[in-house]
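Lab notebook page, bench 4
Experiment: in silico fold of construct C2
Operator: M.H.
Input chain length: 172 residues
Purpose: comparison with the prior construct
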Amino acid sequence: MPTWPGYFVVIIAIAFVLQTAILAAIFFQIKRSQDQMMRTVKDLHTRIAPILTRVESLVSETQPRLVSMVADASEVVHLARNQAQKVDRILTETLDRMRVQLIHVDLILTGALEIIEETGSAFRRTMLGPIQQATAFIRGIRSGLEVLRSFRRPAAEASASSPEHSDEGMFI
């Protein structure tokens, strides 16, 4: 009769055979998957290769154009920057010139207004001064004549006048 160690040896041998069978099955499944994957990769490669060739030809054809476009854009930006600097310089110079001209015009107008003011003052002194003096002189003469007339009137006329007329002279 077999003993326990014999049973264990048989069980271990069966487990070993089963493990070998499972590993062989896994190996063949992986091999089959690898073959299928290689076929898919080859098919994909045959389909992508023409596309990659076309892309390479398009890139090789458009690369000089793109380089030319980038160079042109760079030149346009450079020219635009130069023109902007020129316009800025011209505007600055123009504004400076306008500022100087405005200061000059201000000085001329200030001088002209001072001369007009001096002329007005001189006119008042030379023309209006004597006219005012003559007017004052005439008023003085008129006042003097009225005073003389008031002395010549008879006293009767002064008493005959109504009280309203006598109050008029008192009103200031």
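Observations: The mean pLDDT is 86. Residues 4-147 form one domain.
Next step: discuss at group meeting.
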